[in-house]
Amino acid sequence: LKKFVIIVAAGAGKRFKNHIPKQFECLGGKPILMHSVNAFYEAEPQIRIIIVLQSDFFQCWKDLCVKHDFIIPHTLVMGGPERFHSVKNGLSHIPDDGLVAIHDGARPLISHEIINTAFIAADKHEAVIPVIEVNDSVRITEGSEHKAAERKKLRLVQTPQVFKCSVVKKAYQQEYDLRFSDDATVVEAFGGKVRLINGSIENIKITRAQDLHIAEALLKARTLTS
Amino acid sequence: LKKFVIIVAAGAGKRFKNHIPKQFECLGGKPILMHSVNAFYEAEPQIRIIIVLQSDFFQCWKDLCVKHDFIIPHTLVMGGPERFHSVKNGLSHIPDDGLVAIHDGARPLISHEIINTAFIAADKHEAVIPVIEVNDSVRITEGSEHKAAERKKLRLVQTPQVFKCSVVKKAYQQEYDLRFSDDATVVEAFGGKVRLINGSIENIKITRAQDLHIAEALLKARTLTS
Predict the structure, then answer these.
(1) ipTM reported for the complex, 2 dp
(2) How would you class B179 by CB atoms within 10 Å of its CB: exposed for 0-12, middle for 13-18, buried for 19 or more?
(3) Cβ atoms of residues B200 and B111 within 8 Å
(4) Which of chain B's residues have a Cβ under 8 Å away from the Cβ of A214?
(5) pTM of the predicted protein model
(6) For residue B142, which residues of chain A lie inside 8 Å, CB to CB?
(7) What is the pLDDT of residues A102-131, one digit of tens each?
(8) Of B140, B148, B217, the CB nearest to A153
(9) Contact in structure between B89 and B52 (CB atoms under 8 Å)
(10) Cα separation of B203 and B135, whole Å?
(11) CA distance A114 to B119
């Protein structure tokens, strides 16, 4: 069974300090994006890796690869205006058979266990996403009004979102819609059925400077206990 | 204007390691609960502090106060079977006039700014809660089914939730209802109107062992930048 991963790191990092795209910031001495790539390579050594970046940052990434002796084989693909277009560009580089994981480059702490479990589940169920429960109370706003939501019914969605290649490639032929909030919603809009598996609170997305401190702490705790 | 805070730390810590209630675990060398109390004392030096604990842990807390030279004046109140009853016990120790903040003992990183802002807003609006936006995609489950939720309409609710004493004390005279997920829902069920203010992603609730690593990192980052 052929396995692929598309690691999406095509954001411009507007919410991050210094306007350096966050995927190039260092975490434990190594760029965030390299952690994400490593995780898939270690979990699934035969996997084919596609990294989607804005072309402005191709040279920056290549320089970082040299600097950090990063030699995991991968294909660089150009990002688009929205995440949807970036993923679509990535999908154009994979065949119709096999399974593909689509992963946020800014989730460097993804565990091997979730990667393995998601691929096994996707082989059975065609579309699989990791989710976690919500700890806090939740409100739904509607204009200036708001009311309590049922926390226990809600799940926060993470990546990797893993699909049969044939299914997700066809789904991405649809016109772009603003309601496509992630890959699962694209597949659902095309009639696909999505299966939930357990994610992990450690699998955070690094969006703001503060998240990097949190990731450093989690990485350190992981090193101590392994 | 009289100000009060009820710090609720009456959980038994079932989800935490070693079954030690999490509020007594150390963060930066000091029990989590002491950080929470300190924050209110520093933000509002005239505040009257009520701490709600299960009575089994009164002695443990007193010993910790001696050990850590903790001399901020406070009243200890016995917890009840559910959070609702613990808060109600706390409210029985405050008068009908003034403002009261109700805060999770397990949110030690609450900022002075949010505390001050919440009190000012509660003086105007009678009921105020801090909320933050949701970063991840969200799903709503319904039995074994699920669908995408509108992330942008959702807010995660934190504490302190701050109220006019008269309003919240009356609201807590209601019969307990399983749908009371926090103090705001109790006040709303009694006809009160709740105002949202900005919380902070740093204001995490320490529920599991992993959260303590995150809190350590945030505390360290705060020390470095202040």
Answers:
(1) 0.90
(2) exposed
(3) yes
(4) 214, 217-218
(5) 0.89
(6) 153
(7) 999 999 999 999 999 999 999 999 999 999
(8) B140
(9) yes
(10) 15
(11) 43
